[in-house]
Amino acid sequence: MSDQNDIKRDDPMLAAEFSLGLLEGEELLTARGKLATDPAFAARKEWWDNWFAPWTDEIVGAKPSDAVWQQIQARLDAATADGGSAGGAEVIELQSKLRRWQWTAGITSAAAAVALAFLAFPSGTPGTQPGPLPTATMAAADPLMATVPIGDTGLRLDVTYLPDSERMMVAAIGLTADGVHDHELWLVPADGSALQSLGVVAPGEVRTVTLPADITRNMGDGVELVLTREPIGGKPEGVDAGPVVAQGAFSQV
Amino acid sequence: MAAGPTPASAEAREALKLAMARLADGDRSALEDIYRATRVKLFGICLRILGDRKEAEDALQDVYVNLWQKADRYDPTRASPISWLATFARNRAIDRLRTGKVRGGAVPVEEASPLPDEAPLADALLVDAEQTAQIHTCLKGLDENAQEHIRAAFFDGKTYAQLAESADVPLGTMKSWIRRGLQKLRACLEASE
Questions:
Q1: What residues form DSSP beta bridges with A160?
Q2: What is the pTM assigned to this prediction?
């Protein structure tokens, strides 16, 4: 039996399905994309959320172990340390992190290595050996890399994000424009919130952008990226994003 | 109404509202107050959806770290703090379920229950008695199939495909049951507003 057509699957219906958590795969991405670009849809999702929320009162409460709060505090402390201004000791840490990134990028991807030209290394950076392994508190500041393979073409996007400078490099070497479409890269926040545009991909180029805070706070190990096919110039205002043509995820270097 | 909030819970809700405002101002001590007041409820939600203590604790950590990072996202004019936090926690747990980090899925209620020596309900904030009554009334107006599966989606975090499989019906049938139910539910809830 196929889907029955007697029930109209309008936006309020999609919002209800989204709110309940019934959606998966591309439908879920579509809903999250709408959340970002369609205020009426976002309001309807919130309307359902508010109606369903009282149901959580039926769920029996439970006490988490004391370790949870300690771990939360440790993660907050680590984030605060990363956000601090670079003093003398931190500059040294930063140098070793950059070296380590350079080393990893060099063996992982020639395209990403090209992007190294955009980095201004501190003068007097000694040697080419990788730096010491980062400590746990440094982990949040390590570079993130993602490869997004394009279908069966063997081509791919290389995306690198440097938390220290909040800069992202997108290398689309070998890709050519078809003159009809552009491709737009999106961040899929891990908390289930709306997709965030990372901009239109420039075929055959390596582009570097500085990301705003509302995007950088969603950056992290395992965070997914999707590439959609759009009209030239990227997704127009007020319409849904185009089909997802490729996906990838960041992993910490 | 008889089931209305007691003065004590009204006080707790007010305290939570103030703590959320402090959090939005970047006051880190507010996070601890919020954690103390809401962890039992939010952990219960994560545990119900994920069915695994370790996974639920990881999800709970993410909830509060995220809350700290995005405290400005909560708008007190649009939802009560506990309603918003409960939704936030449930979404986070479902997200974890969908990203494939957890294979097992939700467990039956009895397994997800707290340890006997815990008495968590005493400090679990409730969302809203009046709204609860309304959605229950509206839900009762739906076909039994719709009632059962809409609730299973909410409490177990199941997708259409999983619901169809466990009910042993075609996917199209499940979608049709649930969508018809949601359409009716929407009409009933809108009429009550």
A1: A145, A169
A2: 0.65
Please name the residue of chain A whose CA is at the shortest distance from the CA of residue B88. A191
Residue B186, both tokens: 């929407």
Yes or no, beta carbons of B172 and A13 under 8 Å apart: no
Confidence band for B121, pLDDT divided at 50, 70 and 90: very low
Rounded to whole angstroms, the Cα distance separating A237 from A57 reads 39
CA pair distance A86, A219, nearest whole angstrom: 21
DSSP codes, B75-111: -TTTS-HHHHHHHHHHHHHHHHHHTTS-SS----HHH
CB A235 within 8 A of CB A38: no
**Cβ-defined contact of B90 to A61 (cutoff 8 Å):** no
CA–CA gap between residue B153 and residue B163 (Å, rounded): 8
* Helix, strand, coil % over all residues of chain B, rounded to 5: 75, 0, 25
Question: Distance between CA atoms of A211 and A168, rounded to whole angstroms?
Answer: 7
Q: How many CB atoms lie within 10 A of CB A223?
A: 18
Instruction: Confirm if A201 and A174 have CB atoms less than 8 A apart.
Output: no
Q: Is the Cβ–Cβ distance between B3 and B133 less than 8 Å? A: yes
Interface predicted TM-score (ipTM): 0.86
Backbone angles phi, psi at A241, to 5 degrees: -65, 155
